[in-house]
């Protein structure tokens, strides 16, 4: 390697620092009478987004946005007299997304109760009634977490899709007259899709992605 300055070696580019300025979570039922198709592309012409109509938005998400976590467990082998691990294998890895839905509607209530409420009706007297089950069935979802950064020619969309996921944890529900809305603090864990065989897909797209692809180290297909 030829001698070079620090700046050349560091190869820093502030234009590649991204933020998820706004976003939402869209969900589709994995099974049932109207199952959602797996998302394999999100790009539409004219810089638009193409999402199957069987997906619904959770609406407004809390200001902390979405948090993605990988919980990994390893198997380690150490040798006689060795202070270091000689071999390390991944034995399990859980992929989760956590978000707080702010809107109270059928979709967020389905997350809370882990039930399909598509046939539940509000009575003529204006009453919605949802029974609390002793042990709800496991309900699977297709999850698309979507966010954006930039505007115009610099617009980049981010998306993480879980092809099959379940609600693995719900946070505490607080009823208060303070600065706390009734929210739905949801953690969803991905599982391998029965057909695709993968847990999910990550996407980056939009005019800004095309403009920055070379800087990011990617080749643009011809």
Name the beta content range: 25-35%
The DSSP helix count reads 3
Radius of gyration: 22 Å
Class by alpha and beta content:
mainly beta
Number of strands: 8
What profile does the largest beta sheet have?
Answer: 8 strands, antiparallel
Q: Mean pLDDT across all residues, rounded?
A: 93
Approximately how much helix is present in the residues?
under 10%
Give the total of domains: 1
Shape: globular
The run of helices and strands is: HEEEEHEEEEH
Distance between the termini: 31 Å
Describe the structure.
- By secondary structure, the protein is mostly beta strands.
- The protein has one domain (about 15-210).
- It contains 3 helices and 8 strands.
- The chain has helices at about 5-10, 105-115, 205-210; strands spanning about 20-30, 55, 65-80, 85-100, 140-150, 155-170, 185-190, 200-205.
- Strands 1, 2, 3, 4, 5, 6, 7 and 8 form an 8-stranded antiparallel beta sheet that branches.
- β5 (about 140-150) and β6 (about 155-170) form a beta hairpin.
- The mean pLDDT is about 95.
Produce a short descriptive summary:
The chain is mainly beta. It has helices spanning 6-10, 106-113, 207-212, and strands at residues 22-29, 56-57, 67-78, 85-101, 140-149, 156-170, 184-190, 200-205. Strands 1, 2, 3, 4, 5, 6, 7 and 8 form an 8-stranded antiparallel beta sheet that branches.
Q: What secondary-structure arrangement, pairings included, does this model have?
A:
Layout: H1 6-10, E1 22-29, E2 56-57, E3 67-78, E4 85-101, H2 106-113, E5 140-149, E6 156-170, E7 184-190, E8 200-205, H3 207-212
Antiparallel strand pairs: 1-2, 1-5, 3-4, 4-7, 5-6, 6-7, 6-8
